[in-house]
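[audit] Reproducing an earlier prediction to check determinism. Same input, same settings, fresh worker. If the tokens differ from the archived copy the diff job will pick it up downstream; this log only records the rerun itself.
[audit] input (485 residues):
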Amino acid sequence: MKLPVVALCGRPNVGKSTLFNRLTRSRAALVHDLPGMTRDRSYGLVTCLGEGGAPEEVLQLVDTGGLDFEGEDVITSGITRMAQGALEEAHVVVLLVDGHDGCTTGDEEIAARLRTLGKPVLLAVNKLDGMKGGAPDGAFYALGFDQVHQVSAAHGAGVPELLAALRARLPFHRSPEEADLPAPDEELRLAIIGRPNVGKSSLTNRILGYERSLVSEVAGTTRDTVDTVFRRGERVYRLIDTAGIRRKGKTTLGAEKLSILKARQAMARADVSLLLLDAVEGVTHQDAVVAGYAQEAGAAVILVVNKWDLIEKDGYTSLAFEERIRRELGFLNHAPMIFISALTGQRVTRLFETIHEVAAAHARRVSTGELNRFLREAVAANSPPAVDGKLPKLFFMAQVGVRPPTFVIKANTERGLHFSYMRYLENRLREAFDLAGTPLRVSVQRRGKKDHEDEERAPVRRVLDVGEGLLPSRRKAHAAPRRKN
């Protein structure tokens, strides 16, 4: 059900993102002293509490980039265009101004344009805390709005009163039950990741079918993560467009470091990461770095080769490209690969078939019985090498988690197994249980007394000695102790 929409607007660096985070009780919007951090629209939910602290109403809040109608460069004009789109869909608009700066010509121009919208507009004067006298510039009252709200987005002063005023001006209201919002565990979270200028925002817009993220040829156009919830068929998706991740040596500004941190956080909360590669430039060292971040975060990964429409092709082009990419990104050999063009839409719809496959693998559970049969067969085919001159014994295997699939092997050693043997087990696991595309976590732990009891209750026979061909153990008879005469 459609929610009432409130848009925050104003000049750059007046505190819109800080107020957005305050109202949504989150840290979703990137906040920094550098003007122009917000370039795309950020959406969040505001839950209004009633008496007793129970949720009473839900509305949608939109954070926009700073409006600068005189800017002519592609970034500034793009930010203004995106902000105007948010104003058109909003039911109520909050114009935020900087109390320290006083009323500027930029504020006056924005106010004049807002009056032409014919929508309720609330004026909020921010950053008055600490000012001598604590009163806003009298010129703000001349902008023609009914009320002037004094707030501190950073500390929360005046924010409850502002929220009550905008709620009173909403044309309709939605309770949490009426909103019928999807639960977080119902969403399939997709993160679009990669280095700068590989087409992440273009792919976001192509998937959604409208301009959701600002696109330009300037590398680093996207600075914050952009979340969008959408439905496709019966499924609910959360698409996360992230900032491009550059090499650490080239990352000098604090704002850019924050952008990269948000991008890595997006990988951690994603179920599937779409790693975009540039077909024209090929795989670079930075692509491998980003791929490593995705593996570390634990999301399933799909290798998406973009700009495929710019490549001259013959019958073997895609095979040669795939072989080269597999060689450069050997640790992602398990990840499926697809060649697309975000610009033309080539094969973009086919992405979802692959997304569903790797998402299913990412959440797959395997029974303990199947895992122990797998362990017996894997060790029978290839016994593990000795550790410190001693042959390891693998007793039991179980799955302890999903997203990503996580397994524990109980053994007679705490030193673990040789990395090559662990890789062998992971490859066999992928083949046996269709776990392509997802990272696996496999650890070896020393068997304790409780583990031994669990094995006795398991529906399969435990492993006695991998060096003896995995002979089944014989359970000891629990005979009564002999009495001494």
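[audit] rerun output stored. Observation attached for the diff report: Confidence is low (pLDDT under 50) at residues 459-483.
[audit] end
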